[in-house]
Structure formats: C-alpha cells, structure tokens
Amino acid sequence: MLEKIDSFEIENLMLSADENGIVQVVLSRAKKRNALNAQTIEELIEVFSRLPRMGARAIVLKAEGDHFCAGLDLIEHHNEQRRPEEFMHVCLRWHEAFNKMEYGGVPIIAALKGAVVGGGLELASSAHVRVADQSTYFALPEGQRGLFTGGGATIRVADLVGKARMIDMMLTGRVYKQQEAVDVGL
C-alpha cells in the first residue's frame, strides 16, 4: 500500500500510510486556511475513490496550519465568475467527494482545529467520527454572504444537529465553539 500511496497526482493533499493500513489525508493549503477550490475537490474524489480499493483500513483526515477548513475558496469562486449551471456542477462535485467519504466503506476520523466553517463543516460532516481540539469553531456563514450551502450542509449537518438548528446556523451564521458544538451534536 505504501508504494501505491505515491501514485496519486495531487497538489493540495498530502498522503501517508502506516503498515497497518491507517492512512492520513492532510489538507495542505494552510495559507488559504485550507479553503476548498475545484482542484482540491477533484483530489478528494480521487483519493476517497481509490483508498478503499487499495486496502485502507481507516483514514484520518486532518489539516496543515491552524485551521481545518474555511470552506469554499471565495477568491477562486469570485475570479471564476461561473454561470449558475457551472456552479451547480461544482456543487455536484462537492457532493460526489463527500459521498465517496461517507459511503466508501472505510471509517474516516476528522481531526478538527480552528475554523470548520461552510464547506469545511460539510467536509467534516462527511467523516464518521469528528474529534475537535479547544481552538475549533463551527459555522455556516454562507447565508450572510448571499451564498447557499451547496456542499450538503442541509442534509449532513441537519442529520447531526437537527433541521431547526441547521436552519438557524444557515440564516444567522451562528458560531459554535468546541464544547458548544459537542453539546449540540457536531
């Protein structure tokens, strides 16, 4: 398995595996607070499609830097000036990546720290277990920016915290600190 780990052509993720089949997938865009751009989503699809077939027994998803994931790369989103149908395609790719994680057959543990917001919360919600350090905070700020949560928060986050709390998070941008998040089910 270790030789196969080197076969991935990725730039925004780092992979390592031990002899027991435990794989670490590391988001490596720390300067962008590990924001998810289109390339990173494609890399997540590739990695989470192939790792189960390669014999991974468990996956630890973590991040470089001080933050797990700040969600959608807003600079790329703004610069691309996508038409609505193009953005819908982007959203569908996010769903594919997160479905590969959730339904891929390999348990995923997300090691969370700092910002877990927007698409970062959608990414974390796709993991089977979430572990958060004291610096972690959670939010869905898209609504305050005129954006819709297109990566699956309306389903995955609602499954964790309930529909009413998810709607509140989306409409208010409410931030939950680590212990509050644990208490509400994140």
What does the secondary structure layout of this molecule look like, with pairings?
Elements: H1 2-5, E1 13-17, E2 22-27, H2 38-50, E3 58-63, H3 74-80, H4 84-103, E4 108-112, E5 115-117, H5 119-125, E6 129-132, E7 137-139, H6 153-161, H7 163-172, E8 176-177, H8 178-184
Helix pairs in contact: 2-4, 5-6, 6-7
Q: Would you mind describing this structure in some detail?
A:
By secondary structure, this protein is an alpha/beta fold. It has a single domain (2-184), classed as 2-enoyl-CoA Hydratase, Chain A, domain 1, CATH 3.90.226. It is 41% helix and 18% strand. It contains 8 helices and 8 strands; from the N terminus they run αββαβααββαββααβα. The chain has helices at 2-5, 38-50, 74-80, 84-103, 119-125, 153-161, 163-172, 178-184, and strands at 13-17, 22-27, 58-63, 108-112, 115-117, 129-132, 137-139, 176-177. The chain has a 5-stranded mixed beta sheet, covered by helices on one side. A 3-stranded mixed beta sheet has the order 5-7-8. Helix 2 links the parallel strand 2 and strand 3 (58-63). The longest helix has 20 residues, at 84-103. It is globular, with a radius of gyration of 16 Å. It starts with a helix and ends with a helix.
Largest sheet: 5 strands, mixed
- Order of helical and strand elements: HEEHEHHEEHEEHHEH
Helical percentage? 40-55%
Low-confidence stretches: none
Strand elements, count:
8
What is the CATH first-level class name? Alpha Beta
Radius of gyration: 16 Å
Shape: globular
| Number of separate helices | 8
Query: What structural class do you assign from the helix and strand content?
Result: alpha/beta
Q: Tell me what the CATH architecture is.
A: Alpha-Beta Complex
Task: Compute the number of structural domains.
Answer: 1
* Order of strands across the main sheet: 1-2-3-4-6
CATH topology call: 2-enoyl-CoA Hydratase, Chain A, domain 1
| Alpha carbon gap, first and last residue | 32 Å
